[in-house]
Amino acid sequence: MASEPRAFWRGGRGVRKAQLVSRHLSADFVKKNYDVVKELNSGSFSRVNLVRERLSGALRVCKVIDIKEMDPHVLGMMRKEVQVLSALDHPNIVRLYEFAEDEKTHELVLILEYVPGGDCIDLLEEHERLLPERLVARIIHQLLVVLNYCHKSGITHRDVKPENVMLTSLSNDAFCKVIDFGLATPYKGRVKEFAGTVSYLAPELAIAQSGFSMAADIWAVGVTAFELLAGITPFGKTQEFGNSVEPILEKLCEYESFDEDLYQVFRMSPGHQRMWRSSEAWDFLRTVLAADPEDRPTAQKALQHPWLVRHQPDAVPIAQEMLKSFDGFSEATKMHRSCLYAIAAKGNFAELDMAMVGHAFAQADSDNDGKISLEDLQTASKANSWWSWSRRLQAAMETFLQAADQDRKGYLGYTDFVAACLFQIHHTFDAGLVDDTFDVLDHDRNGLLKAEDVKPAFPRYPPGLPKYCSFGREEWHQCVFREADDEIARTSTEAEEESGILERLFSGMFCRHVEDVDSNELVLSDRDAHFREKVNELRSSTACALPLPMPAADMVLAARASAVQASYQLQPPKGLLPLHATGPSFSTASTFASLSSAQQGYLAARSSYGF
C-alpha cells in the first residue's frame, strides 16, 4: 500500500518547488500582467483562455472557476488541485505557475502551462478515430509513467480519460501532459468516495462495494487504451443514453472479464476492423481490464508489458552538450545554481528546447519513477562516449547529483534536471542572469522582493539581504554577487590548504628529507628527484584525475581502466602493505592501493588541482 511521503507537500530540507508557485489574493493580477489571446473553452462554472504574459511573452492557460455557489466539498477538491499541482514535478504533468482565490469576486484563478496540441479526443478526430497502434502505445506508456510517479508519491488521479491527456502536437512523436487534478487526492488506503467520469469508472466503484484505489486508475488507463485503439468507448458515454449514467453503471456491475464482455466489442470496432490490432494489444487490454482490482497490475508492472516495450523508441543517449552542461553546473557556485533553479521552477526560458529536455529526463529515468537516482545517471552515462570516458566518471556523477539535488532528497526531480540543462544557456554568472532571477521571484511584479520570495529557491539565504522588509534590484545585485565572490574565495582557500597537505604527503612518501644546516631547506637526492618527477607525472595522469576521497579499491579500478598504464618503478613506501603484484615494479594501481586508509583521507584534493 502506498503512503504519502512526509515531505511531499512541504518539499525537502533545502529548496521548495511548491513554494515557488506564486499565490495572489486578488484575481486582478491577470489583467495587470497578461493579455488574452483567445478563448479556449467555457462552461457553467468555468472559462479557459489562452493568455500571454507581457513581461516574458510566454503563452499560458488561464482557468477561471466560479466558486460563489460551489459546494464546500467540491471547493475543497479545487483547492487540493492547487496543492497537488504545486508539489508534483514531472515533465508529463502540466505545470502550475500562479493562482489566486479571490474572496471579493468569488473566483479561483489558475495560470497553467500551455499545451498546444489539444487532447487525445482531438487526436482521434484528426485521424478519423483510426490511430496507429505505435502512437497509442507511446501515449499509454507516458500516461502510465505519470501514474507510476503519482502513485509512488502517494497520489491517485481519479479522473484518467483521453480528455485529460494533452499533447504537445498531433504528430506521431507527440509528448503527453496529464491535466485536471481536481479529483486527485493523497492515498491513505481506499478513498470511499464516488468520483470520476462514469464511462471510465472501475467496476468496484460502480458496485459500490469498495472505495477508490490505485487499481481504479489502472482500469481507467485500460478504458482509455481501448478507446484509442478501437475508436469507440467500451461501455459507451452518457450522451448515447440521453445523459443517463444508469445503463453504463449496469454494464459495469455485470462485467466479468475482457474476454466475456468486451472481446466482440473490440473485434467489431472500427479500429480493429480497419487497422487490425496486434495480439499484444489485445493481451494488454485483457490484463489492465481485469474485473478484480487485485488482479490488475500496478503502473510499474504494466509498463513492462511486451506491447508497450515493443513500441518504445530506441534509447537515445543524452546529448553531449547536455552532459557538458551538467558538468559545468557541478562546478558553478551555489548562487549560480540557485538562480537557475528559480528560473527553472517558473518556466521562463524560451531558449531551451523543452521537448528535448523532457525526452532526456524520460530516457535517464530508467525505472520510470519520475526521479533521477545515481544509478539512473550511471546507466545514462554509459550510453554517451563523452561522459563514460570522462576522467572523473564515478565521482563526476556523484558530484553532479549532490550539486543538482538542491532540496536534499537524494535524487533529481524534473525542476532540478531543467536547472542543470539551463546552464548551457546561462553558463556565466552575470548581471543578466541575476536580473532574470529577480524577475521570476518578483511574484507581484512591483520591483521589490521579500525574504519569503527568495528562501524557497536558495538553500543559503544571501547574507546582507533584509529579512523583515522589502528590497529592490540594486540591493539584490550587491548581495548576490558578494555572496558568490565570498564562496569562490572560501573554495580557493580550502583548495590551497588541501593542496598543501597533498604536497607534504607526496614529499613524505617519496622524498628523502635531509636537513641542510646552513639553509634549513629540503634536499633531494638524484634518486629522490627521479621519484619526484614520476610522482608529478602520476598526479597529472588519468588514474589520478578523480575527485577524492575514494576507497583504494576504486583507485585500483580507475588506474587499471586508465590509458596510462606505464610502470613507474615506484617502490612501496616504508610501513605500507602493497597489493600482491606480478613483476619487480609497481604500477600506478598498486601504488595507490598500497596507501593506508589514513593517507587516503589526505588525498581529498579537488579535481581543479590535478585530481
Lay out the secondary structure:
Elements: E1 22-24, H1 28-33, E2 34-42, E3 46-53, E4 59-66, H2 72-87, E5 96-102, E6 107-113, H3 120-126, H4 133-152, E7 155-156, E8 165-167, E9 176-178, E10 185-186, H5 203-207, H6 214-230, H7 246-253, H8 258-261, H9 263-267, H10 270-275, H11 279-288, H12 299-302, H13 306-310, H14 320-331, H15 334-346, H16 354-364, H17 374-382, H18 385-388, H19 393-404, H20 414-421, H21 431-441, H22 451-454, H23 473-510, H24 526-540, H25 552-561, E11 567-570, E12 586-587, H26 588-593, H27 597-602
Parallel strand pairs: 1-5
Antiparallel strand pairs: 2-3, 3-4, 4-6, 5-6, 7-10, 8-9, 11-12
Helix pairs in contact: 4-6, 6-11, 14-19, 15-20, 15-21, 17-19, 21-23
Keywords summarizing the entry:
single chain; 611 residues; alpha+beta; Phosphorylase Kinase, domain 1; Transferase(Phosphotransferase), domain 1; Recoverin, domain 1; 4 domains; six-stranded mixed beta sheet; two-stranded antiparallel sheet; 27 helices; 12 strands; globular; disordered N terminus
